[in-house]
Structures are given as structure tokens and as C-alpha cells.
Amino acid sequence: MHVQTTWVALLATLPTAFAFWPTYYSQNANNANNVGSVNSVNPHSNDEPNVTLETVFQFPNNGSWIVNLVERRDGSLLLTRLDTPEVWSLDPATGTAELVHSFPMVTSCFGISEIEDDVFAVVIGNFSSTTYQPTPGSFVVQKIDFSNAAARTEGANAGHTVSEIAAIPEAVALNGMTSFTRESHLVLIADSPVGLGWKLNTQSGEYSVALNNTKLRPAEGQALPLGVNGLKVLNDYVYYSSTTRMEFGRVKVNSEAMPVGDYETIASGFLPDNFDVASDGTAYIATDPQNSVVRITPSGQIALVGGGQLSTQMPGATSCRLTSDEKTVYVGTSGGQVAPVLGQFMEPAKVVKITFN
């Protein structure tokens, strides 16, 4: 998110080794160097999972950009788009998608999270997908409510209502979002350029800074000021991706979502975007310009799940979402807009289904 530079400039500043992502992560674990993790174990793993990849839906035009996705209770997916202020619904069983809502007066949608049964909070704001420039102060959290029982008889998306939860004018560029607990009515939202995590009460509209640490801030000397990106809550921990620091970590928090422990780096050395975490603490992380999804064990071991730096399976993988049974991961993409494969290949945004065999 920067006025004058693009992700291409960022990639030029990364260590040379990471330009060869598939090769680097298939090295023998005994020869790889340890990067920081919660436990003192070698993080590199050859234990790549046996999976099947399938494209279930693709938008028709280049320039489309899925930034986040979430599963509804009926198994359908809600997709947020960066290139246009729209939320879409996708039935992965049939591969059909339809527009749910287009927000006026803004350019983009970002994080999305379920806050009540079939009720979702959505981040919207102004952001250019060509200059990567946000408009500070333009970011708002909206609510999309599908819970009307009568409306559901007319179709899964019929009769929904949209209302504003809160504007957060102090934010520079809100990004990933996760629900904390239903009882607290809190969501946590990443403010990527400044490395903050806001907490917002979705009932009262009150908000304040909950997460603020060097590990969440953009790395020094990087062309793109993109720090904390995705957030996820599991048990007493908030998990986070910190993109330009190339770190995935977690911090223990109390019942008010305030840190009570150290910020721990679980794994590092790759470009994490949005992610999901399974019930056992295993994370599935999209790597956007590295065009892949990786699996991180709780001990910090890394395995390539699908895609790769030179792969066109999922160019610009932006987000991951586990299904409720944790047997499938859905991946949203930007089509490689951030960094085209081999500097040339781009395609419309799509949703890829990864099934564990």
C-alpha cells in the first residue's frame, strides 16, 4: 500500500533465495537453515500433503481481485473484491456465483468475518489496485445480515440487509479481519501500513487499538509498507501474518483481546497474506506474489501445499479458508496482478478448491 511503488519493487528487495520458492522449500530439511519458530526445530519439511486442486469459479475479466473469502453455514462462500466494492456469493458445488452487494462511495472490500449466525462484518474503503494507494480515513466496517428466516425460503442471498457498524477514521488502511468471540462481540482488524490491530465491538461500534508491536509493522527499508495482513483467533491466541517482515506468528491475549504474552514467530522466510488455522493449530497461508499456499505446523515446519513461484495453478493466491470439516481449503486469487508469473502471465481472479486426499 504505497503511493509510488508496486509489489514488483518490493520483490526486488527480497533475498535472492526466495525468488526460487519451489526449489528452496524442497531442499533437504537437514541442509536448510533454521528460521525463527516457537520451538527450536528445523522449519523446512519435505512432507508435502497429498492434495487435489480444482478451479471451481473464475471471474471473466483480468483485473478482478479476490481479497478474502469466508464459508457460510450452507457451504457457500462469500468473496470480497479489491478491484470493485463488491461482495459475491459462490456455490462451490455448482461453480455458480452471484453479486450479493455493491457498496457505494468506496472502491474496495477487504476482510470479512461471521459475527453471528449468517451475519457478517465486512471492511470497505478506498484503495487503488493500480497504485496501491489507500485513502486514510475512508475505512468503514459494514454488516451484511442473511439471518432473516423468511428471506431464506426465497434463496440463500435473498432478503439480506446491509448496515454500518462503525467508521474508523483514524485507520490508514484496514485489511484482514477476524471475529474474537461471539460473547464479546469483538472483531480484530489489521491496519497494515502502520502495523496495528484494532478491536471493534460490533454491537456498540466502539473501537480501540488492541495489538501494537514491532512485529506487526512494515519491515524497514521495504518499498511497500505492508505489515500485519491477516488475523485469526484460536483458543487464547491471535495468529497474524506480517507480510514485509516475512513472518507468521501469534500472541496470547486475554478476554478483552489484549496481549498478555510475547509476540512469537512461528515461521518466517516467505510472504504471508491471508490465512486460516485448523483446530490443531496448523495454518494454511496464501503467499500472493509467490503464487502458492503453504502449510505451517504448530512447531513451525513448512510444507508447500500447492502452486509455486513459477506455477499458474493459483497466481496471486491472496486468501485461504478451511471448510468446517477441515478437509478442504478454498483459495482466492488476484490472478497474479501483484507479480505476474514469469513477469508476464496474468488471469482473472478465481477460487481454487484444495482437497486433502
Keywords:
357 residues; mainly beta; Neuraminidase; four-stranded antiparallel sheet; 3 helices; globular; signal
Description:
The chain has 3 helices and 24 strands. With 357 residues, it is mainly beta. It has a single domain (7-356), classed as 6 Propeller (Neuraminidase), CATH 2.120.10.30. The strands form 6 sheets. Strands 1-24-23-22 form a 4-stranded antiparallel beta sheet, with no helix packed on it. Strands 2-3-4-5 form a 4-stranded antiparallel beta sheet, with no helix packed on it. The longest helix is centred in the first third of the chain and has 6 residues, at 7-12. The model is unreliable at 1-43 (pLDDT under 50). It comes from Penicillium oxalicum (strain 114-2 / CGMCC 5302).
Biggest sheet record: 4 strands, antiparallel
Number of domains: 1
The outline comes out as globular
Number of helices: 3
Do you know the CATH architecture? 6 Propeller
How far is it from the N-terminal to the C-terminal residue, by CA?
Answer: 37 Å
CATH superfamily: TolB, C-terminal domain
Which percent range fits the helix content?
Answer: under 10%
Which structural class matches the secondary elements? Answer: mainly beta
Number of strands: 24
Task: Detail the poorly predicted runs.
Answer: 1-43
